[in-house]
Amino acid sequence: MTTAAIRRRPGTPCWVSLMVHGLGTTQDFYGALFGWSFVQVPGAQQFGPYVRGILDGNEVAGIGQLPPDRRLPLAWTTYLATNDADATAEAIRGCGGTVGVGPLDAGEEGRIAMASDPAGALFGIWQAQAHTGTAVAGPHGTPVWNELVTGEAVWVSTFYQSVFGYELETAGRDENDGDDGDDVVTLRLDGRPVATLHGLGDGLGRIRGSYWMTYFEVDDTDVAVRRVVELGGHIIDPPRETAAGRVATVADPEGAVFSVVRSATR
User: Are 174 and 181 in contact (CB under 8 A)?
Assistant: First the structure.
């Protein structure tokens, strides 16, 4: 088990959040799957009802409710740490990305902006104040990895390098997926891997487009996948062995896609 640092190096994935239409039913799903309890976040209510998933007293992820008239593709969003949300937003614009929301204050919790890279993948930036992000990684139900699924990983990696200063490592095999391929880039900070970019080329779905994928640790991948189905979700890619562990990709009842993994290091 790894407890998160109070302040993260800029560019480190620090939080994951999901916006849904049915907040109550989504809490039921993830609570039953991962063992989360939930607390409301009063300071975030300016954006609509929002809760944080709690595991053994530690904050692990957020879930918010969309307005009834907003019909957007639902997806887990990865947030990248920054020490200055305004400066990072300017860098995103200057490097060919788009800032759709913010930067703006989220009460005393921090300062937030929502952006997309040049390939259209949505991500958040978070300047921590009272809320420093995911507080634990390792146990069942915690986010343990983030991967950008995109058309051309090598191409889009230069955007992330320019904005956040990552070191780029090109490899022929995805550390989380285990598939052979030439378009895989690992993002590193101070020599430590923090995320992977996986280019699918023509295999990327045109409807969904580029997106960030959250991997959640589980005690048993096969059991977790069966539980997803029992709770009203569905399987996208069944369990498979990879270099990183046994992985499956699934979707919750509203269609938000995520992966579950029993890490090889556990």
Answer: yes
Are 105 and 122 in contact by the 8 Å Cβ rule? The answer is: no
Q: What is the C-alpha to C-alpha distance for residues 62 and 76, in angstroms, rounded to an integer?
A: 9
Q: Given pLDDT bands bounded at 50, 70 and 90, which one contains residue 174? A: very low
- Average pLDDT estimate for 12-19: 96
Mean pLDDT of 2-31: 86
One-letter amino acid at 71 equals R
Cα separation values, 261 from 99, 177, 246, Å: 31, 10, 5
Distance (Å, rounded) from C-alpha 255 to C-alpha 174?
Answer: 25
How far is 248 from 229, CA to CA, in rounded Å? 13
Is the alpha carbon torsion for 137, 139, 141, 147 positive or negative? Answer: positive
List own/partner pairs for 109-117 with CB under 8 A and 24 or more apart.
109/41, 109/43, 109/44, 111/85, 111/86, 112/79, 112/85, 113/85, 113/88, 113/89, 114/77, 115/89, 117/148, 117/150, 117/156, 117/159, 117/160, 117/210
Judged against a pLDDT cut of 90, whether residue 217 lies above it is answered with yes
- Residue 180 token pair: 């052979």
Largest CA distance in the chain: 46
Q: Is 232 left (phi over 0), alpha (psi -120 to 50) or beta?
A: left
Asked if residue 180 lies in contact with residue 198, where contact means CB atoms within 8 angstroms, the answer is no
Q: Token pair for residue 209?
A: 């487009």
Asked whether residue 143 carries a pLDDT value surpassing 60, the answer given is yes
Strands, sheet with 211-217, edge to edge from the N-terminal-most edge strand: 167-173, 180-189, 192-199, 143-150, 211-217, 257-263, 245-251, 234-242
